[in-house]
Specification:
Elements (H helix, E strand, L loop, with lengths): L1 H70 L6 H25 L5 H18 L7 H141 L5 H29 L3 H4 L2 H16 L3 E7 L6 H22 L4 E7 L3 E8 L14 H12 L3 E6 L5 E8 L10 E4 L1
Parallel strand pairs: 1-2
Antiparallel strand pairs: 1-6, 2-3, 3-5, 4-5
Length: 455
Protein backbone atom coordinates (compact mmCIF):
# COMPACT_ATOMS: atom_id res chain seq x y z
CA UNK A 1 0.00 0.00 0.00
CA UNK A 2 2.72 2.50 0.97
CA UNK A 3 4.95 1.94 -2.08
CA UNK A 4 1.88 2.12 -4.35
CA UNK A 5 0.83 5.42 -2.80
CA UNK A 6 4.38 6.71 -3.03
CA UNK A 7 4.43 5.94 -6.76
CA UNK A 8 1.08 7.69 -7.19
CA UNK A 9 2.36 10.79 -5.37
CA UNK A 10 5.59 10.69 -7.40
CA UNK A 11 3.61 10.49 -10.63
CA UNK A 12 1.35 13.33 -9.46
CA UNK A 13 4.27 15.60 -8.64
CA UNK A 14 5.98 14.62 -11.89
CA UNK A 15 2.85 15.43 -13.90
CA UNK A 16 2.50 18.73 -12.05
CA UNK A 17 6.10 19.71 -12.80
CA UNK A 18 5.75 18.59 -16.42
CA UNK A 19 2.52 20.58 -16.81
CA UNK A 20 4.12 23.67 -15.27
CA UNK A 21 7.09 23.31 -17.64
CA UNK A 22 4.72 22.81 -20.56
CA UNK A 23 2.80 25.94 -19.62
CA UNK A 24 5.98 27.96 -19.31
CA UNK A 25 7.59 26.80 -22.55
CA UNK A 26 4.27 27.04 -24.43
CA UNK A 27 3.76 30.60 -23.22
CA UNK A 28 7.29 31.56 -24.22
CA UNK A 29 7.03 29.91 -27.63
CA UNK A 30 3.52 31.15 -28.44
CA UNK A 31 4.24 34.65 -27.16
CA UNK A 32 7.43 34.86 -29.22
CA UNK A 33 5.64 33.65 -32.32
CA UNK A 34 2.79 36.16 -31.86
CA UNK A 35 5.31 38.93 -31.35
CA UNK A 36 7.20 37.95 -34.52
CA UNK A 37 3.97 37.75 -36.55
CA UNK A 38 2.79 41.13 -35.26
CA UNK A 39 6.17 42.71 -35.95
CA UNK A 40 6.30 41.19 -39.46
CA UNK A 41 2.77 42.41 -40.25
CA UNK A 42 3.57 45.88 -38.98
CA UNK A 43 6.84 46.04 -40.92
CA UNK A 44 5.11 44.84 -44.10
CA UNK A 45 2.45 47.50 -43.75
CA UNK A 46 5.00 50.25 -43.12
CA UNK A 47 7.13 49.15 -46.06
CA UNK A 48 4.13 48.99 -48.40
CA UNK A 49 2.97 52.42 -47.26
CA UNK A 50 6.44 53.78 -47.83
CA UNK A 51 6.52 52.33 -51.37
CA UNK A 52 3.07 53.73 -52.17
CA UNK A 53 4.08 57.16 -50.86
CA UNK A 54 7.22 56.90 -52.99
CA UNK A 55 5.11 56.10 -56.08
CA UNK A 56 2.90 59.12 -55.33
CA UNK A 57 5.94 61.33 -54.89
CA UNK A 58 7.47 60.05 -58.14
CA UNK A 59 4.22 60.80 -59.99
CA UNK A 60 4.28 64.37 -58.72
CA UNK A 61 7.93 64.69 -59.75
CA UNK A 62 7.10 63.34 -63.23
CA UNK A 63 4.35 65.95 -63.49
CA UNK A 64 6.83 68.67 -62.57
CA UNK A 65 9.30 67.42 -65.20
CA UNK A 66 6.70 67.25 -67.97
CA UNK A 67 5.39 70.69 -67.05
CA UNK A 68 8.88 72.21 -67.13
CA UNK A 69 9.51 70.56 -70.48
CA UNK A 70 6.28 71.89 -71.98
CA UNK A 71 6.92 75.38 -70.69
CA UNK A 72 10.52 75.50 -71.95
CA UNK A 73 10.39 77.44 -75.29
CA UNK A 74 13.89 76.53 -76.43
CA UNK A 75 13.57 72.72 -76.51
CA UNK A 76 17.32 72.39 -75.94
CA UNK A 77 16.90 70.34 -72.72
CA UNK A 78 14.36 67.88 -74.19
CA UNK A 79 16.79 64.97 -73.85
CA UNK A 80 17.51 65.83 -70.25
CA UNK A 81 13.79 65.98 -69.40
CA UNK A 82 13.20 62.71 -71.21
CA UNK A 83 16.01 61.04 -69.25
CA UNK A 84 14.64 62.37 -65.94
CA UNK A 85 11.20 61.01 -66.78
CA UNK A 86 12.74 57.62 -67.65
CA UNK A 87 14.52 57.57 -64.29
CA UNK A 88 11.26 58.37 -62.52
CA UNK A 89 9.52 55.65 -64.52
CA UNK A 90 12.15 53.08 -63.57
CA UNK A 91 11.80 54.13 -59.91
CA UNK A 92 8.02 53.75 -60.02
CA UNK A 93 8.27 50.33 -61.77
CA UNK A 94 10.76 49.13 -59.14
CA UNK A 95 8.47 50.29 -56.36
CA UNK A 96 5.50 48.58 -57.98
CA UNK A 97 7.45 45.29 -58.20
CA UNK A 98 8.36 45.52 -54.54
CA UNK A 99 4.77 46.34 -53.62
CA UNK A 100 3.62 43.26 -55.58
CA UNK A 101 5.87 41.05 -53.43
CA UNK A 102 4.54 42.59 -50.23
CA UNK A 103 0.80 42.41 -51.03
CA UNK A 104 -1.37 39.30 -50.75
CA UNK A 105 -3.57 37.78 -53.43
CA UNK A 106 -6.61 39.86 -52.45
CA UNK A 107 -4.71 43.10 -53.24
CA UNK A 108 -3.31 41.78 -56.52
CA UNK A 109 -6.35 42.97 -58.59
CA UNK A 110 -6.10 46.55 -57.35
CA UNK A 111 -2.34 46.52 -57.94
CA UNK A 112 -2.89 45.24 -61.50
CA UNK A 113 -5.21 48.15 -62.23
CA UNK A 114 -2.61 50.53 -60.80
CA UNK A 115 0.15 49.12 -63.02
CA UNK A 116 -2.04 49.34 -66.12
CA UNK A 117 -2.97 52.93 -65.32
CA UNK A 118 0.70 53.82 -64.76
CA UNK A 119 1.59 52.30 -68.13
CA UNK A 120 -1.21 54.30 -69.78
CA UNK A 121 0.12 57.41 -68.04
CA UNK A 122 3.60 56.93 -69.46
CA UNK A 123 2.21 56.08 -72.88
CA UNK A 124 0.27 59.33 -72.89
CA UNK A 125 3.50 61.29 -72.38
CA UNK A 126 5.40 59.81 -75.32
CA UNK A 127 3.94 62.06 -78.11
CA UNK A 128 4.97 65.20 -76.22
CA UNK A 129 8.63 64.68 -76.94
CA UNK A 130 7.96 64.75 -80.71
CA UNK A 131 6.31 68.16 -80.65
CA UNK A 132 7.87 71.28 -82.07
CA UNK A 133 8.35 74.36 -79.87
CA UNK A 134 5.34 75.96 -81.55
CA UNK A 135 3.18 72.90 -80.78
CA UNK A 136 4.33 72.93 -77.17
CA UNK A 137 3.30 76.58 -76.83
CA UNK A 138 -0.02 75.89 -78.54
CA UNK A 139 -1.14 72.60 -76.96
CA UNK A 140 0.75 72.38 -73.65
CA UNK A 141 -1.95 73.84 -71.40
CA UNK A 142 -4.70 71.82 -72.96
CA UNK A 143 -2.58 68.65 -72.90
CA UNK A 144 -1.69 69.09 -69.24
CA UNK A 145 -5.29 69.83 -68.30
CA UNK A 146 -6.98 67.16 -70.42
CA UNK A 147 -4.45 64.28 -70.45
CA UNK A 148 -1.66 64.53 -67.91
CA UNK A 149 -3.63 65.69 -64.86
CA UNK A 150 -6.54 63.20 -65.28
CA UNK A 151 -4.11 60.31 -65.77
CA UNK A 152 -2.06 61.33 -62.77
CA UNK A 153 -5.16 61.75 -60.62
CA UNK A 154 -6.37 58.30 -61.75
CA UNK A 155 -2.98 56.81 -60.81
CA UNK A 156 -3.05 58.55 -57.43
CA UNK A 157 -6.59 57.31 -56.80
CA UNK A 158 -5.57 53.75 -57.63
CA UNK A 159 -2.56 54.08 -55.36
CA UNK A 160 -4.90 55.17 -52.57
CA UNK A 161 -7.16 52.20 -53.35
CA UNK A 162 -4.19 49.85 -53.11
CA UNK A 163 -3.27 51.47 -49.79
CA UNK A 164 -6.86 51.14 -48.60
CA UNK A 165 -7.00 47.45 -49.58
CA UNK A 166 -3.69 46.92 -47.83
CA UNK A 167 -4.99 48.68 -44.73
CA UNK A 168 -8.03 46.40 -44.79
CA UNK A 169 -5.73 43.40 -45.03
CA UNK A 170 -3.69 44.82 -42.16
CA UNK A 171 -6.80 45.09 -39.99
CA UNK A 172 -7.80 41.57 -40.99
CA UNK A 173 -4.36 40.28 -40.06
CA UNK A 174 -4.50 42.19 -36.77
CA UNK A 175 -7.87 40.62 -36.02
CA UNK A 176 -6.43 37.18 -36.80
CA UNK A 177 -3.56 37.86 -34.43
CA UNK A 178 -5.97 39.05 -31.72
CA UNK A 179 -8.05 35.90 -32.19
CA UNK A 180 -4.88 33.83 -31.98
CA UNK A 181 -3.99 35.58 -28.74
CA UNK A 182 -7.50 34.99 -27.39
CA UNK A 183 -7.29 31.31 -28.32
CA UNK A 184 -3.91 31.05 -26.66
CA UNK A 185 -5.33 32.76 -23.58
CA UNK A 186 -8.21 30.24 -23.45
CA UNK A 187 -5.84 27.27 -23.85
CA UNK A 188 -3.44 28.70 -21.30
CA UNK A 189 -6.33 29.34 -18.88
CA UNK A 190 -7.54 25.74 -19.22
CA UNK A 191 -4.04 24.39 -18.71
CA UNK A 192 -3.57 26.65 -15.70
CA UNK A 193 -6.85 25.48 -14.18
CA UNK A 194 -5.82 21.87 -14.85
CA UNK A 195 -2.45 22.46 -13.23
CA UNK A 196 -4.11 24.09 -10.21
CA UNK A 197 -6.58 21.19 -9.91
CA UNK A 198 -3.79 18.65 -10.18
CA UNK A 199 -1.72 20.58 -7.67
CA UNK A 200 -4.69 20.74 -5.30
CA UNK A 201 -5.28 16.98 -5.67
CA UNK A 202 -1.61 16.21 -5.06
CA UNK A 203 -1.61 18.56 -2.07
CA UNK A 204 -4.70 16.93 -0.59
CA UNK A 205 -3.28 13.43 -1.07
CA UNK A 206 0.08 14.52 0.34
CA UNK A 207 -1.45 16.22 3.38
CA UNK A 208 -3.72 13.24 3.98
CA UNK A 209 -0.75 10.91 3.78
CA UNK A 210 1.31 13.16 6.07
CA UNK A 211 -1.49 13.31 8.63
CA UNK A 212 -1.96 9.53 8.38
CA UNK A 213 1.77 8.99 8.91
CA UNK A 214 1.72 11.39 11.87
CA UNK A 215 -1.19 9.53 13.42
CA UNK A 216 0.51 6.21 12.76
CA UNK A 217 3.74 7.57 14.23
CA UNK A 218 1.87 8.70 17.35
CA UNK A 219 0.22 5.30 17.66
CA UNK A 220 3.58 3.58 17.24
CA UNK A 221 5.12 5.88 19.83
CA UNK A 222 2.33 5.11 22.29
CA UNK A 223 2.69 1.41 21.50
CA UNK A 224 6.46 1.60 21.98
CA UNK A 225 6.00 3.41 25.28
CA UNK A 226 3.43 0.83 26.35
CA UNK A 227 5.73 -2.00 25.26
CA UNK A 228 8.60 -0.40 27.13
CA UNK A 229 6.48 -0.12 30.28
CA UNK A 230 5.31 -3.71 29.81
CA UNK A 231 8.87 -4.88 29.27
CA UNK A 232 10.02 -3.06 32.39
CA UNK A 233 7.17 -4.56 34.38
CA UNK A 234 7.78 -8.04 32.99
CA UNK A 235 11.49 -7.68 33.70
CA UNK A 236 10.68 -6.91 37.31
CA UNK A 237 8.31 -9.87 37.44
CA UNK A 238 10.93 -12.07 35.83
CA UNK A 239 13.46 -11.12 38.49
CA UNK A 240 10.87 -11.83 41.18
CA UNK A 241 9.97 -15.14 39.50
CA UNK A 242 13.63 -16.14 39.36
CA UNK A 243 14.05 -15.27 43.02
CA UNK A 244 10.85 -17.16 43.88
CA UNK A 245 12.02 -20.18 41.88
CA UNK A 246 15.38 -20.13 43.63
CA UNK A 247 13.61 -19.77 46.95
CA UNK A 248 11.35 -22.74 46.25
CA UNK A 249 14.29 -24.81 44.96
CA UNK A 250 16.26 -23.92 48.06
CA UNK A 251 13.29 -24.84 50.25
CA UNK A 252 12.89 -28.16 48.42
CA UNK A 253 16.57 -28.94 48.84
CA UNK A 254 16.55 -27.92 52.49
CA UNK A 255 13.22 -29.27 53.59
CA UNK A 256 12.97 -32.40 51.48
CA UNK A 257 16.46 -33.48 50.48
CA UNK A 258 18.10 -32.09 53.63
CA UNK A 259 15.67 -33.85 55.95
CA UNK A 260 15.92 -37.11 54.02
CA UNK A 261 19.70 -37.02 54.10
CA UNK A 262 19.61 -36.19 57.79
CA UNK A 263 17.27 -39.12 58.35
CA UNK A 264 19.59 -41.37 56.35
CA UNK A 265 22.53 -40.31 58.50
CA UNK A 266 20.56 -41.04 61.65
CA UNK A 267 19.47 -44.41 60.28
CA UNK A 268 23.07 -45.28 59.40
CA UNK A 269 24.15 -44.35 62.94
CA UNK A 270 21.36 -46.54 64.30
CA UNK A 271 22.49 -49.42 62.09
CA UNK A 272 26.00 -49.04 63.45
CA UNK A 273 24.63 -49.33 66.98
CA UNK A 274 22.59 -52.43 66.07
CA UNK A 275 25.46 -54.51 64.75
CA UNK A 276 25.32 -56.70 67.89
CA UNK A 277 21.51 -56.58 68.16
CA UNK A 278 19.26 -59.44 67.12
CA UNK A 279 19.16 -60.03 63.37
CA UNK A 280 15.41 -59.38 63.04
CA UNK A 281 15.78 -55.93 64.56
CA UNK A 282 18.77 -55.18 62.33
CA UNK A 283 16.90 -56.27 59.18
CA UNK A 284 13.88 -54.16 60.13
CA UNK A 285 16.03 -51.05 60.56
CA UNK A 286 17.85 -51.89 57.30
CA UNK A 287 14.50 -52.07 55.47
CA UNK A 288 13.49 -48.69 56.91
CA UNK A 289 16.80 -47.22 55.77
CA UNK A 290 16.32 -48.66 52.27
CA UNK A 291 12.82 -47.11 52.08
CA UNK A 292 14.27 -43.77 53.12
CA UNK A 293 16.89 -44.01 50.39
CA UNK A 294 14.21 -44.84 47.81
CA UNK A 295 12.19 -41.86 48.95
CA UNK A 296 15.26 -39.65 48.63
CA UNK A 297 15.90 -40.92 45.13
CA UNK A 298 12.28 -40.26 44.10
CA UNK A 299 12.42 -36.76 45.54
CA UNK A 300 15.65 -35.96 43.67
CA UNK A 301 14.22 -37.46 40.46
CA UNK A 302 11.01 -35.40 40.78
CA UNK A 303 13.05 -32.28 41.38
CA UNK A 304 15.23 -33.00 38.35
CA UNK A 305 12.20 -33.83 36.24
CA UNK A 306 10.66 -30.49 37.18
CA UNK A 307 13.77 -28.72 35.96
CA UNK A 308 14.23 -30.82 32.79
CA UNK A 309 13.05 -34.41 32.36
CA UNK A 310 15.94 -36.65 31.42
CA UNK A 311 13.60 -38.89 29.48
CA UNK A 312 13.17 -36.03 26.98
CA UNK A 313 16.75 -36.71 25.91
CA UNK A 314 16.81 -40.42 26.65
CA UNK A 315 13.65 -41.89 25.15
CA UNK A 316 12.06 -38.97 23.24
CA UNK A 317 9.30 -36.40 23.26
CA UNK A 318 6.32 -38.78 23.32
CA UNK A 319 7.14 -40.62 26.56
CA UNK A 320 8.10 -37.31 28.21
CA UNK A 321 4.69 -35.84 27.36
CA UNK A 322 2.93 -38.97 28.62
CA UNK A 323 4.87 -38.75 31.90
CA UNK A 324 3.93 -35.05 32.11
CA UNK A 325 0.23 -35.94 31.71
CA UNK A 326 0.44 -38.64 34.42
CA UNK A 327 2.36 -36.37 36.77
CA UNK A 328 -0.12 -33.51 36.20
CA UNK A 329 -3.06 -35.81 36.95
CA UNK A 330 -1.35 -37.15 40.05
CA UNK A 331 -0.53 -33.73 41.42
CA UNK A 332 -3.71 -31.81 40.48
CA UNK A 333 -6.33 -34.52 40.46
CA UNK A 334 -7.55 -33.32 37.04
CA UNK A 335 -7.82 -36.08 34.40
CA UNK A 336 -5.49 -35.35 31.47
CA UNK A 337 -5.68 -37.02 28.07
CA UNK A 338 -2.49 -37.02 26.01
CA UNK A 339 -2.83 -37.84 22.33
CA UNK A 340 0.18 -38.08 20.04
CA UNK A 341 -0.43 -38.27 16.29
CA UNK A 342 1.89 -38.43 13.36
CA UNK A 343 5.66 -38.59 13.50
CA UNK A 344 7.55 -36.96 16.36
CA UNK A 345 10.79 -38.89 15.97
CA UNK A 346 13.90 -37.09 14.88
CA UNK A 347 12.82 -33.63 16.00
CA UNK A 348 15.73 -31.32 16.87
CA UNK A 349 16.38 -30.65 20.54
CA UNK A 350 15.02 -27.09 20.43
CA UNK A 351 11.70 -28.37 19.01
CA UNK A 352 11.39 -31.09 21.68
CA UNK A 353 12.14 -28.60 24.43
CA UNK A 354 9.70 -26.04 23.01
CA UNK A 355 6.82 -28.54 22.72
CA UNK A 356 7.44 -29.92 26.22
CA UNK A 357 7.63 -26.47 27.84
CA UNK A 358 4.52 -25.27 25.99
CA UNK A 359 2.49 -28.24 27.26
CA UNK A 360 3.99 -27.93 30.74
CA UNK A 361 3.14 -24.22 31.02
CA UNK A 362 -0.34 -24.75 29.55
CA UNK A 363 -1.34 -27.48 32.00
CA UNK A 364 0.14 -25.45 34.86
CA UNK A 365 -2.17 -22.57 33.90
CA UNK A 366 -5.08 -25.02 33.75
CA UNK A 367 -4.35 -26.14 37.28
CA UNK A 368 -3.87 -22.63 38.65
CA UNK A 369 -6.57 -20.58 36.92
CA UNK A 370 -9.00 -22.63 34.81
CA UNK A 371 -10.71 -24.74 37.49
CA UNK A 372 -11.03 -27.36 34.76
CA UNK A 373 -12.54 -30.80 35.14
CA UNK A 374 -10.69 -32.30 32.19
CA UNK A 375 -7.65 -31.41 30.08
CA UNK A 376 -6.94 -32.67 26.58
CA UNK A 377 -3.43 -32.49 25.09
CA UNK A 378 -2.95 -33.10 21.36
CA UNK A 379 0.43 -33.09 19.58
CA UNK A 380 0.50 -33.79 15.85
CA UNK A 381 3.68 -34.10 13.80
CA UNK A 382 3.89 -33.99 10.00
CA UNK A 383 6.63 -33.54 7.44
CA UNK A 384 6.55 -29.75 7.54
CA UNK A 385 5.10 -28.76 10.92
CA UNK A 386 4.33 -29.69 14.51
CA UNK A 387 0.95 -28.65 15.94
CA UNK A 388 0.32 -28.49 19.70
CA UNK A 389 -3.03 -27.81 21.35
CA UNK A 390 -4.06 -27.88 25.00
CA UNK A 391 -7.80 -27.63 25.69
CA UNK A 392 -9.67 -27.48 28.99
CA UNK A 393 -13.32 -27.18 30.04
CA UNK A 394 -12.72 -24.60 32.73
CA UNK A 395 -13.83 -21.02 33.34
CA UNK A 396 -12.39 -19.60 30.13
CA UNK A 397 -11.05 -16.11 29.58
CA UNK A 398 -13.01 -12.84 29.93
CA UNK A 399 -14.84 -11.51 26.86
CA UNK A 400 -12.41 -9.83 24.48
CA UNK A 401 -9.49 -12.09 25.38
CA UNK A 402 -6.88 -11.71 28.08
CA UNK A 403 -6.24 -8.11 29.02
CA UNK A 404 -2.97 -8.99 30.69
CA UNK A 405 -0.55 -11.77 29.81
CA UNK A 406 1.64 -13.27 32.45
CA UNK A 407 5.14 -14.61 32.10
CA UNK A 408 3.84 -18.07 31.20
CA UNK A 409 1.90 -17.04 28.11
CA UNK A 410 4.61 -14.59 27.08
CA UNK A 411 7.19 -17.38 27.43
CA UNK A 412 5.07 -19.67 25.21
CA UNK A 413 4.70 -16.93 22.59
CA UNK A 414 8.42 -16.16 22.62
CA UNK A 415 9.37 -19.83 22.27
CA UNK A 416 7.01 -20.24 19.29
CA UNK A 417 8.24 -17.02 17.66
CA UNK A 418 11.88 -18.03 18.12
CA UNK A 419 11.25 -21.12 15.96
CA UNK A 420 9.19 -19.20 13.38
CA UNK A 421 5.88 -20.55 14.69
CA UNK A 422 2.51 -19.07 15.62
CA UNK A 423 0.67 -18.84 18.93
CA UNK A 424 -3.10 -18.50 19.36
CA UNK A 425 -5.61 -18.57 22.22
CA UNK A 426 -9.34 -19.08 21.72
CA UNK A 427 -11.73 -19.01 24.65
CA UNK A 428 -15.34 -18.44 25.67
CA UNK A 429 -16.36 -17.49 29.20
CA UNK A 430 -17.56 -20.58 31.03
CA UNK A 431 -16.76 -22.94 28.13
CA UNK A 432 -13.04 -23.42 28.48
CA UNK A 433 -9.88 -22.35 26.66
CA UNK A 434 -7.79 -23.80 23.85
CA UNK A 435 -4.14 -22.87 23.42
CA UNK A 436 -2.61 -23.66 20.00
CA UNK A 437 0.99 -23.52 18.77
CA UNK A 438 2.23 -24.41 15.29
CA UNK A 439 5.93 -24.79 14.51
CA UNK A 440 7.28 -25.11 10.95
CA UNK A 441 9.77 -27.97 10.55
CA UNK A 442 12.21 -28.14 7.67
CA UNK A 443 13.77 -31.61 8.24
CA UNK A 444 11.66 -34.51 6.99
CA UNK A 445 10.01 -36.57 9.69
CA UNK A 446 9.83 -40.35 9.35
CA UNK A 447 7.53 -42.87 10.96
CA UNK A 448 4.17 -42.36 12.55
CA UNK A 449 3.00 -43.21 16.03
CA UNK A 450 -0.18 -42.76 17.98
CA UNK A 451 -0.71 -43.38 21.65
CA UNK A 452 -3.34 -42.26 24.04
CA UNK A 453 -3.04 -41.89 27.76
CA UNK A 454 -5.82 -41.14 30.12
CA UNK A 455 -4.85 -40.26 33.68
Amino acid sequence: MVPRLSWVMLLGFGALIALAGLLGFSAIHRGGRLYEETLATHNTYLQTESLLRGITADLHISGVHIRDYLLDPSGIAAGLYREQLLNVRHSIDARLDRVEHELDSESAAALGDLKREVEAYWDSLEPVFDWTPQQRLTYSHAFLRNHVLPRRIAVLNLAEQVGAVHAINLRREQERLRESRREFRRVFTRLTIGAMALGLAVTIVTMYRVFALERKNQREMRRAESAEDELRRLSQRLVKAQEQERKELSRELHDEIGQLLTGMRMELNSLGALRTAPRERFEQRMSETRDLIEQTIRTVRDLAMGLRPSMLDDIGLGPALEWLGRDFSRRSGIPAEVRLDGSLDGLPEEYRTCVFRVVQEAVTNCARHAQARHVRILVHGSEDRVAVSVQDDGLGLPAGGPTHRGLGLLGIEERARELGGTFHISSQPGRGTMLSVELPVSPALHGASESTYRG
